[in-house]
Amino acid sequence: MPKLVKFGGSSLADANQFKKVADIIKSDKHRRFVVPSAPGKRFGADNKVTDMLYGCYEAVCGGSDPQTEFKPVAERFNKIISDLGLSIDLSKEYEIICDNFKKKAGRDYAASRGEYLNGIILAEFLDFNFVDAAEVILFDSYGNFDADLTDSTLSLKLGTLKNAVIPGFYGAMPDGSIKTFSRGGSDFTGAVAAKAISASVYENWTDVSGVLVADPKIVLNPVVIERLTYRELRELSYMGATVLHEDCIFPVRSAKIPINIKNTNDPSAAGTMIVPESTEISDPPYIITGIAGKLGFSTINIEKDEMNSEIGFFRRILTLLETEKVSFEHLPTGIDTMTIVISDENLKKSPRLIEKIEKVAKPNNMDVEDGLALIAIVGRGMKNKKGTAARIFAALSHADINIRIIDQGSSELNIIIGLDGDDFEQAINVIYDMFILS
Ligand code: ASP
């Protein structure tokens, strides 16, 4: 069975990285289908090609000359081509792109050219077929990704090919205009392509040796998670773990294809294996699998006498949130109290939300508190294990950290706590120490 291999921007940032990628692909004959990102940063202060393209298009829309604006991007690709010793000439492609920029082909079109051009170069370097994602990754006329049409088109196309490079991040609408996924969306293209070829595994190559138990910007040298389930990954990535695009789980999960996160700079490291829930999976080495969290939440606290016996109270509030198109995170309740935990980003979508809640709920008391952080402690190993919550709370209490919200579903897959944003990093560290180091 073929493998789908996806390489992120740092894995393709320059010719040296391209060579590592080619070695990885050529070392396993099953690695026949490749999804590349656009070149990423070569060093800390460098620019990602995708960001350069957004900037370039904006400048052209503001009246700048497309050729001048596009030149640094062209130079970046030309350097990769010459450093690899390839003889392709992309100047015709650059002309078309500049022309389309002038015709205002759109931001999505502009950003997608990073993956498109990188795909052409990689296909040439590997001597693989090039399949333009605009032919096989399809959106409907409203701009929604068309999973079924894409799956049938892509599997038909790739079924005829021995190998292929399919650029990540973009596809096309029925009228041919280019549409991208959200940032980091090449992961999603990889997942969709893995499903279409019924891959034995979706290898996602990046610059870290797998999913880490906690954010390395917060915890010093966190350990790598060897194995986790899709559901655990979903919980962690929703709560801020950034290894994979959060949507990319869905296509492979339905096809029960495991994802292997691997490091292009250390290919012999096992990385992280993400497997379906149904797979026989060994007991995790620690009770918790991972810790993730986000800043920037608020709570709307509503108090009303006899709220619990008032029929329709919750419905009225939830209907209001629906009509205001505001999604919320959690809804902890007491007998006569209800708290809506909501991200500040969502709260901003409805500037008069509080006033409107007052109108439909007629509370005795209501207040809004901001500056909340949420932390999710995730792990299949927590199920039926006594004392996990006690250990979390003891660790936080020892560190003098106050917990404002507690939420655990009966699946026991995660415990979510809300605390002051100021305590965020310290809380993650003490939980990490409690479960991983002690
Ligand atoms: N190049 C795009 C980005 O920077 C997509 C990707 O790399 O997955 O977001």
What attributes does this structure have?
alpha/beta; Carbamate kinase; VC0802-like; 2 domains; seven-stranded mixed β-sheet; five-stranded antiparallel β-sheet; globular; binds aspartic acid
Characterization of this structure:
This protein is of the alpha/beta class and 438 residues long. It has 2 domains: 3-207, Acetylglutamate kinase-like (Carbamate kinase); 290-437, VC0802-like (2-Layer Sandwich), CATH 3.30.2130. The chain is built from 15 helices and 14 strands. The chain has helices spanning 15-26, 49-61, 66-83, 91-102, 107-126, 133-136, 147-159, 186-196, 230-238, 249-254, 313-323, 344-348, 353-361, 388-398, 424-437, and strands spanning 3-7, 31-36, 164-165, 170-172, 178-180, 201-206, 227-229, 259-263, 272-275, 290-303, 337-343, 365-378, 403-408, 414-420. Helix 2 (49-61) runs antiparallel to helix 3. The longest helix has 20 residues, at 107-126. Bound molecules: aspartic acid (ASP). Aspartic acid (ASP) is lined by residues 9, 37-38, 48, 50, 114, 168-169, 183-187.
Structure in a nutshell:
The chain has 438 residues and is an alpha/beta fold. It is built from 15 helices and 14 strands.
